[in-house]
Specification:
Putative RNA-directed DNA polymerase from transposon X-element; disordered N terminus; 10 helices; globular; alpha+beta; Alpha-Beta Plaits; about 40% helix; AlkB_hom8_N; single chain
Length: about 300
């Protein structure tokens, strides 16, 4: 077994990125000393174990230079699900296309390959005289343009409505209600059934609820509530409504953002000079008014002094 030990100064941590990305296989171990970082590499058939405490640190170190170069673009890094978001103004797509080319070059330089077949492009355009832009190419292959995609468990459409996502979640929740009924037939008590509902049914139905629930239509909210009522009849006790779950999660998430000055959205929860209310977020469209940040600010202001 071949074993290599590389010692790198803490002021030259960039060498850790280029070295680790060049490894085809291997087990990485980082030993933190007072002013030195040591990378020990041994031949192995596996990489970093799933759930390893060093995985977030390694991911941050190895991808710290993979960032957007243009202010109108954004790269959201989440393991292998990494989207490039670009704001196109006056039909000028040069910054967006350069950002995609930059990401493609970064992946090639770090021995990573983009799967073009799994790569999708979605265009959100609410203009009346909109036109289809030229296709985006990666590695000489055109990227497929879709009207909806699923990202991190949420179905997003190009019209920014949530009917597709809600229908999917309701169908998924109904499938899991079958197991809840089977448990009741087995004679389990209400406490166990409630715990099963919260862990299996509600967790699936309320995935990222702070993102989409505020913009759902009345019919979609009724469809979600019908699932809760069906679960109540099975469990035999009252359960929190989807609106109550949405409200509590919005408050909890806003509290975490307000306590973290380094959060990118911390400035959106700016208090008024009196300190008892938050400054309202101006919104010209209903779509923006029902989104998370304006809705949460109104929710916190209606709950009394902060």
């Amino acid at each position: 077994m071949e074993r290599k030990s590389i010692t790198i100064s803490s002021w030259n941590i960039q060498g850790l990125r280029s070295t680790a990305f060049g490894l085809k296989t291997g087990t990485q171990m980082i030993v933190l000393q007072e002013e030195m970082v040591q990378l020990v590499v041994a031949s192995s058939s596996t990489g970093s174990p799933q759930g390893c405490v060093l995985s977030p640190l390694l991911f941050s170190l190895l991808t710290h230079d993979c960032s957007a170069r243009h202010p109108s673009c954004l790269i959201v890094k989440f393991a292998d699900d990494t989207p490039v978001v670009g704001r196109i103004a006056y039909n000028n797509e040069s910054d967006y296309r350069q950002e995609v080319e930059h990401l493609e070059g970064w992946c090639s330089a770090n021995n990573l390959c983009i799967n073009v077949k799994k790569t999708k492009e979605m265009i959100v355009d609410f203009r009346r005289g909109r036109h289809l832009p030229p296709p985006l190419h990666i590695g000489g292959t055109a990227v497929e343009v879709v009207s909806s995609l699923r990202y991190l468990g949420v179905n997003i459409t190009n019209d920014l409505t949530w009917s597709t996502n809600t229908s999917y979640l309701v169908r998924k929740a109904h499938q899991r209600l079958y197991f809840l009924r089977r448990l009741r037939r087995a004679g389990l008590g209400s406490s166990v059934l409630t715990s099963f509902y919260r862990c299996v049914v509600e967790s699936a139905m309320c995935t990222c609820i702070t993102v989409w629930h505020g913009s759902c239509s009345a019919a979609e909210k009724k469809a979600l509530q019908r699932v809760v009522k069906a679960a109540q009849r099975t469990v035999g006790c009252s359960l929190p409504t989807t609106t109550d779950t949405y409200t509590s999660r919005c408050r909890k998430r806003a509290s975490c953002i307000m306590k973290d000055p380094t959060h990118p959205a911390h400035a959106l929860f700016a208090p008024l000079p009196s300190g008892r209310r938050l400054q309202s977020i101006k919104s010209r469209t209903t779509r923006l008014r029902n989104s998370f940040f304006p809705e949460t600010v109104r929710l916190l202001n209606s709950g009394g002094p902060l």
